Amino acid sequence: MIGVRCSVPDARLAQRGARCPVVTARCSVLDARQSAIGNPQSAFLAFLFVLLTVACSSSDGRTVLTVYSPHGRELLAHYEAEFEKANPAVDVQWVDMGSQAILDRLRAEKTNPQADVWFGAPAEIFARAAREDLIEQFKPSWANSVSAESRDAGGRWFGTYLTPEVIAYNSEAVSDAEAPKDWDDVLDPKWKGKVLIRNPIESGTMRAIFGAMILRSMLKTGSPEGGYEWLRKLDASTKEYTADPSILYQKLGRQEGLITLYNMPDIEIQQKRGYKVKYSIPTSGTPLLVEGIAIVKGAKHPDMAKAYYEFVTSIPALLVSAERFTRIPARTDIPANSLPSWIREAQAKIVPMPLDQDVLAQHLDEWMRYWDTNIRNQYRGK
Fold first, then answer.
1. Which CATH number fits domain 164-287+349-374: 3.40.190.10, 3.30.2420.10, 3.40.50.970, 3.40.50.1970?
2. What's the whole-model pTM score?
3. CA 90/CA 254 separation, integer angstroms
4. What gap in Å lies between CA 275 and CA 268, rounded to an integer?
5. What whole-number distance in Å separates Cα of residue 109 and Cα of residue 106?
6. Which residue in 20, 55, 230, 335 has its CB near the most CB atoms, within 10 A?
7. Residues pairing with 328 in the sheet
8. What does residue 168 show for φ and ψ, rounded to 5 degrees?
9. Going by C-beta distance under 8 Å and a sequence separation of 6 or more, which residues neighbour residue 303?
10. Cα→Cα distances 57→5, 60, 66, 115, 183, Å
11. Superfamily assignment of 3-162+290-341 in CATH?
12. Distance between first and last Cα of the chain
């Protein structure tokens, strides 16, 4: 869903899981699922969002800085407060939605950009945005402190966090011994009807996992067919494709499904919140995603956007992200002993899965369309 600071007196918000039902400082107003590629309502939704953005302008004379991000309410609200404390003339307004939904919205808004900063999405999504001229060139002060794989050669995006993908499970219903240890273990018939999957269409995390399974096949055979067959078997075991992460966590916690595939930092957060959930780092290798940040092409407040960009990617901010929000920094100039122990332990176990970002950027949309049309919900129970 999409979260913006505004007042929207709409009883439907309560029915759709909004953060508050009638009048709110942070409310959900649109379903990101509706902004997927090819949706005939996308133009109307983009127009409606523009109207909401205008309606939500700051009334106290401060400069409104708009941030699009999939990083979640807690992290975004923290950096909103901290940046506004350091910059009292700025009113940060963030929009929380899936990575693919952000790309779709920037495409729809290309002639009249509504955002200033894009904070968070896998590298392959940023690569497509760069090719479509949706993001500006900007070299941050720490540009040389990330690996070549964690930045755009043209300087249009740079890496902020590294995100490993893992297999998660309800730890009350599934013991550590019987939990899947690798990707193919998830396809074991004993998990049939017990798998929950976040809807991949607008989720950068799930698109990355699905793309990695297809790339794995292509490395062996040169064809995506083996990856499609893996996704068919996964579909046969999947009980539900949940609309958003919150629903995924709730259903996993209620044992409406027992295992899922998702990113390690978010599962760590659920553990801290008391959810009975653990994860396995796949033994054969895991996609290690680079999450990026960029200035939106045509941003209305480019100087303030650059200041926010530098603020949230500073070493102090990244250490806060690691400690409070379980994010693994992409910068290589942070002393390892300053990072939380869980990050150091995970780094010792992770085997990065080979990911060809050029191939992903070129073909992932095509692969996802094939999955959506030919696989989704067609093999359940078979």
1. 3.40.190.10
2. 0.75
3. 41
4. 10
5. 5
6. 230
7. 162
8. -110, 155
9. none
10. 9, 9, 10, 13, 46
11. Periplasmic binding protein-like II (3.40.190.10)
12. 32
> How big is the chain, counted in residues?
382
The domain spans of the chain are 3-162+290-341, 164-287+349-374
pLDDT tens-digit series, residues 320-368: 999 999 899 999 999 989 999 988 888 888 988 988 878 888 899 899 9
SS3 state of residue 230:
helix
Domain pair 3-162+290-341 / 164-287+349-374, same fold: yes
> How are beta strands 135-136 and 3-4 bridged, if at all?
unpaired
Question: What are the φ/ψ torsions at residue 135 (nearest 5 degrees)?
Answer: -130, 150
Encoded amino acid at 76, one letter: L
Structure tokens at 172: 């009350």
- Cβ partners under 8 Å of residue 204, min gap 6: 70, 98, 99, 100, 121, 122, 125, 289
